[in-house]
Amino acid sequence: MPIDVLPARRFEVVFLGTGTSVGVPVLGCECEVCQSADPHNSRTRCAILVHLEQGNLLIDTPPELRIQLLREKVKLVHSVLFTHEHADHLFGLDDLRLFPFRLGHPVPLYCTAKVEHRIRTSFDYAFTNRKETHAGSVPQLAFRPIDTEPFEVMGVRVVPIPMKHGPNFDVLGFRIGDFAYCTDTNEIPPASMKLLEGVRTFVVGALRFTPHPTHFNLEEAIAVARQVNAKQTYFTHLSHDLDYDAVMAKLPPGMALAYDGLHTNAGF
């Protein structure tokens, strides 16, 4: 039976970034994809923004976050979810500094204990007891602990999807209504696959053509997408191996490469 979710609501998902940890173009690389003039082949680090009735929900804070939000003309982020603590999904966190002025309170961060520990360690200046030199000199953040149990954010129920990112590293995907976001994984266990039953829009990482120890390659991602059987699948966390036009021409119906700036209606 499909997982019990809140009644589906229409909302928009914006792909802020769709690239692997080094981005595309890759520094120093002169391959055809890195030199491509096609904007679909220009990929900043992975994040999405979910426009909900009660505000903007950000998933992950990549290093290019400021640039991504400016590009999409996003004036305010109301809450943040984190999939895991790797640098390419975390190190734009300081770009949240301005939002507490407009929110009137610290930015809520929904994350596991492991992610909270990494944030407190990497951004220790935001959590020391010393006084700020001026308002806004450090980010104002409020942790909201999560685990594998469903929780509510801004009026919607979020279902964590436990996944593996290599043999010894746990990450979370997230399901909201009929939409699921599962980047940075090379294994979705059977119990987690059950949590994806009935999903209509499915996003999953597809790093490259050849196998990788911590990510699905394109062939593996297609196989998982066929199991999920969503109406629409988007592949993200893409490397410079994947030329947009060349891959799109060969993908099965209902599957596509995501790209920076893609907007899609989901959750309906």
Automatic annotation (TrEMBL):
<feature type="domain" description="Metallo-beta-lactamase">
    <location>
        <begin position="43"/>
        <end position="237"/>
    </location>
</feature>
<dbReference type="Pfam" id="PF12706">
    <property type="entry name" value="Lactamase_B_2"/>
</dbReference>
<keyword id="KW-0378">Hydrolase</keyword>
<protein>
    <submittedName>
        <fullName>Phosphoribosyl 1,2-cyclic phosphodiesterase</fullName>
        <ecNumber>3.1.4.55</ecNumber>
    </submittedName>
</protein>
<dbReference type="InterPro" id="IPR036866">
    <property type="entry name" value="RibonucZ/Hydroxyglut_hydro"/>
</dbReference>
<dbReference type="GO" id="GO:0103043">
    <property type="term" value="F:phosphoribosyl 1,2-cyclic phosphate phosphodiesterase activity"/>
</dbReference>
<dbReference type="InterPro" id="IPR001279">
    <property type="entry name" value="Metallo-B-lactamas"/>
</dbReference>
